[in-house]
Amino acid sequence: MFILFFTYHCKKNREMVKLQKSIEKRNAILEATLDLINEGGYQMVAMGKVAKIAGVSPATIYLYFENKQDLINQLYLICKEEFSKTAFNNYSEEMSIEEGFKVIWYNIARYKMNGTKEAYFLSQCDNTPMVDNETFQKGLDFIEPMIQLWYRGIEEKKIKSVSPYLIYANTVYPLGFLMNIQKKDTNTFNNSILDDAFKMAWDSIKL
After folding, report:
1. Residue 164 pLDDT more than 70?
2. Domain extent at residue 50
């Protein structure tokens, strides 16, 4: 009985180690892709380069991803999910439109101003057709609370009755521009500047 018990647990441990190594390889591939895109854009992502940086064989990549597009699509959704956790931190649907928008906006602003690799990657995805349309639509699911806040604001006649895309373009999208300026070390965005930026964003959509 002891031998059977020991053998069973050894087998489970081997399976867990194998699973952990598999997760580590997949994460290394995603991280390598993220670095390459941030260095030179979509065209920098060649499977051979990804494999070399990740420390795996090119064939290993295809165990986790169908092709280059699938790799970038999955990276986008992972980053978008993590972004949403930050964006809606401390946000509640019970908040007023302005209060809720302010919480979300400052969360996004701080996320982008931190200048993480993921933030820069998502900014590139906003500016280029890097991910396919189906994946882009899936990505919108992660910011659904913000879109619903805008719809509620329109219904309550607190903000202008325009497309969510226009609201995003006037309030959130400019943060990517500010992030890129900060990345180039041409300016430093302190709290005072962010306060001014928020006021301009809110003034652009409020009634």
Report:
1. yes
2. 2-65
